[in-house]
Amino acid sequence: MTEFLRNGGRAAHQLRPVRITRGYTIHAEGSVLIEFGNTKVLCTASVEEKVPGHKKGSGEGWVTAEYGMLPRATHTRSDREAARGKQSGRTQEIQRLIGRSLRAVFDLKKLGERTIHLDCDVLQADGGTRTAAITGAFVAAQDAVNTLLASGKLSATPITQPVAAISVGIVGGTPLLDLEYTEDAACDTDMNVVMTGAGHFVEVQGTAEGVAFTRAEMDALLGLAEKGIVELMALQQQSLSKYELLPQME
Amino acid sequence: MTEFLRNGGRAAHQLRPVRITRGYTIHAEGSVLIEFGNTKVLCTASVEEKVPGHKKGSGEGWVTAEYGMLPRATHTRSDREAARGKQSGRTQEIQRLIGRSLRAVFDLKKLGERTIHLDCDVLQADGGTRTAAITGAFVAAQDAVNTLLASGKLSATPITQPVAAISVGIVGGTPLLDLEYTEDAACDTDMNVVMTGAGHFVEVQGTAEGVAFTRAEMDALLGLAEKGIVELMALQQQSLSKYELLPQME
Amino acid sequence: MTEFLRNGGRAAHQLRPVRITRGYTIHAEGSVLIEFGNTKVLCTASVEEKVPGHKKGSGEGWVTAEYGMLPRATHTRSDREAARGKQSGRTQEIQRLIGRSLRAVFDLKKLGERTIHLDCDVLQADGGTRTAAITGAFVAAQDAVNTLLASGKLSATPITQPVAAISVGIVGGTPLLDLEYTEDAACDTDMNVVMTGAGHFVEVQGTAEGVAFTRAEMDALLGLAEKGIVELMALQQQSLSKYELLPQME
Amino acid sequence: MTEFLRNGGRAAHQLRPVRITRGYTIHAEGSVLIEFGNTKVLCTASVEEKVPGHKKGSGEGWVTAEYGMLPRATHTRSDREAARGKQSGRTQEIQRLIGRSLRAVFDLKKLGERTIHLDCDVLQADGGTRTAAITGAFVAAQDAVNTLLASGKLSATPITQPVAAISVGIVGGTPLLDLEYTEDAACDTDMNVVMTGAGHFVEVQGTAEGVAFTRAEMDALLGLAEKGIVELMALQQQSLSKYELLPQME
Amino acid sequence: MTEFLRNGGRAAHQLRPVRITRGYTIHAEGSVLIEFGNTKVLCTASVEEKVPGHKKGSGEGWVTAEYGMLPRATHTRSDREAARGKQSGRTQEIQRLIGRSLRAVFDLKKLGERTIHLDCDVLQADGGTRTAAITGAFVAAQDAVNTLLASGKLSATPITQPVAAISVGIVGGTPLLDLEYTEDAACDTDMNVVMTGAGHFVEVQGTAEGVAFTRAEMDALLGLAEKGIVELMALQQQSLSKYELLPQME
Amino acid sequence: MTEFLRNGGRAAHQLRPVRITRGYTIHAEGSVLIEFGNTKVLCTASVEEKVPGHKKGSGEGWVTAEYGMLPRATHTRSDREAARGKQSGRTQEIQRLIGRSLRAVFDLKKLGERTIHLDCDVLQADGGTRTAAITGAFVAAQDAVNTLLASGKLSATPITQPVAAISVGIVGGTPLLDLEYTEDAACDTDMNVVMTGAGHFVEVQGTAEGVAFTRAEMDALLGLAEKGIVELMALQQQSLSKYELLPQME
Q1: What mean pLDDT comes out for the span E148-171?
Q2: Is the ipTM of this complex over 0.85?
Q3: Which residues numbered 21-40 in B keep a CB inside 8 Å of some CB on C?
Q4: Is the CB of residue D218 less than 8 Å away from at least one CB of chain C?
Q5: Record's family (chains A, B, C, D, E, F) (predicted)?
């Protein structure tokens, strides 16, 4: 079992360069371009002063996500979902995952009867788009909450802690952190892990693409993921503190 | 942290009564009614002598699954998906999971250029429908393969090993095996685990519904799941040997 | 014109064995598995305490039906309508027929502003699915009404009389009662007849599949149908009286 | 039981004025405007030199129909089906009926591997649109066949006999021929009858809108329908002979 | 550059014979068959006493249009949009154009909170269907307004001036007025022009089908269009005054 | 009639700052971010080595476009078209316009039997998205053609000349070049003009939003548009020559 050689000499336990750009577009309450290497996802957070039917009159808010991929975000062009007239199963799976992950760190009662829509659109794909989307959506959601705090619509933050996500996988017997596309295509096991700032799991989704994986392999992957998520949260924090883009409530 | 009281005095690590009825309907190559307590899923396996586009000319076969729920399988009636004109995200997620799980134990080259369609239709729901579907679909797939072997269309089985699935979760601090509906609705963490006969993981999907879960909790849940799946595989084996419904190849 | 030989030595004017199982599933207010030989249809009746738009504020209730067939209920697998994204013309025709037939024996004013949804799902098909569905749906509707009476939501039954249905047809010159699939495929004329307990017609739908039919043939078919429906109503009555499943109002 | 008073002093057994205009539009191989009183349906027959999948390579042709209603053909505007994105159950039921009725008088083998599409579009509705459509579609189909004969694409007609249709119903106890809209809305029983030139039935579709109907009432309705259809066939014949629009084969 | 020879010896700057038939169908508040040579479009105006969501509570009304083509309005049959389940891009473009054109001559405040639906259905197509539709829809809208005035629902007309439309194009170097189908198919430039009674432009849509067009060509086309529209407005006026179909307010 | 004051002191006849970034994403054969002030559109050109049905066997290629807008590209979030299950009429109108505009400068015979897909996705909207899309799509198409030339798949360019587009409009009586959103919302007349490098028109689409426009106003707008397009073409040229991103054929 020789170690798999990664692009650019990346180590097995190393994240790709991560870049988080806040204020990437001007209209949304939160707008973040997140890059995991060549994967680029634009995450916007839009505040709407109403809730879907199942929350009406509950005093609680809602956080929901949609995911899309530009037709030529990928190596070969894929059909535009709007033109085909429906979202694929994969798209729906991913947007449900993003929504659940973000709701896990929101106190919906404190949000009040309003909705935060998180739109995660992949401009360029190279593996890990759903984990980049969750990690970037948290920053966008934080900016949207900051806007609500600054405008006095909220007096206390409904966000309980940070959330971030990373993919891990086993390629040629080696557990790798943050798979890029060629690794993802070659891997036997692919796992997406979502964790909170407290170091607990929100989602663990492991799939054997080739041979099934053992408990020991699973343990190794969870360890790698934990390491990566700690690093991502530091980057989220750094990004959110950087430019003081938005005035804060005291 | 007192132990949660389960219906019928069931222990935390105990499966509900499982019943596997082969030959439940007459037309399909494999037709299995599987019951996990009050959850009843009809799993049929249909053999089609052609493959979808992405497998044409590959010499390989395909195994795919569809999932549905009768409108009044549940406590309150839900809309019929055929009438609404689309399958929900949940439905698509589940049928993709069933398909991946079954393909994990198939050698598609040995199957030859044909498709096995697994239709899993929930007649009555009380939690765990997707895990019952995977467990039952394996038995139906085995019967369909037996038909192909008996007719001489296949000379060796393309099935490499059994596959089964179970849900586990944490309710009120207690890890429970095989959640029924009321437990599922109350749980903090819900995990679906799919394993092979060799004791390896095909899929692990853990979701924090309420508070996020720790690594220790995850370990406890995986242990419980492993125990349950070993028992399910014994029941699959027993069911497949019981009536010698179909002539076997030597 | 020699008499057509039927499966199992069935006489031309003979029904297949009919079995009506009440309480087949646990959640619905009425749940009936009806079997006409190898044809098996699960009919559930669900009570909803509201009415569709065109009945709002009218003081009247509504009775409506939906029909579906599991993909492998038939000899060869047919596409899942939910996956194709629409119900076929045949499905819509059948569910409209079931709805009209049941409404013919309901006093909608006495039902009050609530809806009874009848879901008829074919688990196994061998001809006559729509007539089995109507006959079984009546029993399910009766159980749902009994539930409403028992709970005090209704003080008098809105059901005015029983309704049942049967198919008849001419195969090789012989009028046959209750066609099974092979007979249906071979017949020149196919007629579905729906009648009330008073012996009157609710629906007569005759179709020449091959050569057109004469008035004399039509008369013969109507006579056969009448005979069959009288027998079906006796079986409905027997089934409803059997287990006293539900407490009755005096 | 006093006789129902009909518009314009029409007798119970009397058709509305029927007008059949051939060559109503210029592009179609057959184009007929048929009027039953205020009901106006444009029936076009289009020949296509290929067949649908289930007839490919069979040496047989196909005859199929589509039905539509202009949004303001009716008293109050109804939604445009193309805008809503689907055809109603009623529309599908009617177009299936028209297709079956026309196929009943076609020898598909003699038609050869080509399709005749019958488009029946209601310009103005006042009851009886489906029966007018069938009656007019036959004339359009005859013109299309004449075109094929004249061009030498066919050497013998595939049409075996005429087909026509009429509605009958019971209003206030009186059996009426050819219901107009207000009669249709008021009737207890509504029956559509399709017959061939030989006086045999192709379709009989009777529906109790209010109280169920007796065998005697059914007999009376069938008699009325037969009378009306004989008259319609005379009008079809007269129309087809009138202008010698198309050269005939000897 | 020799002058293109038009059917029937029509001059380059000459309209086809235009016929406007009011009261073509009986149910709609306005119903006009407009013919530009062989192009025949049925335009109905339906009044609905409510407005779409974006106008609710505004005190303003709405004018909207839908466009359709019967499947065999054209040389070869095209698919029925209702059967395909969606309107083509071309259809949507045209109906949006008709709607905008009519709204340009309506004072929506004076219309009050009601909607006028303009349905333009092409019975026979030979080029210029959208311009015929706009020209005919204006007459239908005027009739609908007259109905509202006559019934006292309106006390003053919300129509500010007439509107009409014509196509122009360059074929073989010659600017032509009112293109028929064969000209439209052969032309290099195709322009649809919508003008008001005051001689101003509501819409100008010029498209180079083959080679791009010069400013001088554009000027020539606009001049031709202006001439044609003046003639169309005289015909609209003549048609509206002709039979005094509807009582007028003084 | 005082001159309308534009943002940032922009003159009536002045373009917003235009930025064209080639190679914006890595997978597409051409990938261009074009900015007209705050309007940002990502235009990718994808080469596919096959053609749609209507071009099969013709020896000719095809150029087609799709257009989309990210949900929060706009001031308030709009529904995601993929989630709603269909593209709006506006979207279809725009993508048809882009496709026609680009085909106007392509010699499809020289392109050979392959398709160039132009995907224009609006990341941020502030008026003029369709004109930015056309202008940017040309640069992306040129890069895709350069790729085909460089790889030897084409030996001569199928592009006959440049194409670009701009919006013009009348706001408060003043003709303005390159409308931004607030101007577009306020304008009486809105015109989109597409021109070739030879200074000829490909498309002229003028719409009176408020009062209809005169011939003189139209002339003024066309003059402004021509000026703007000449400037845009200089910027296209400059961008394409800038980095010599792709090797050229001699």
Answers
A1: 97
A2: yes
A3: 25-28, 31, 38, 40
A4: yes
A5: Belongs to the RNase PH family.
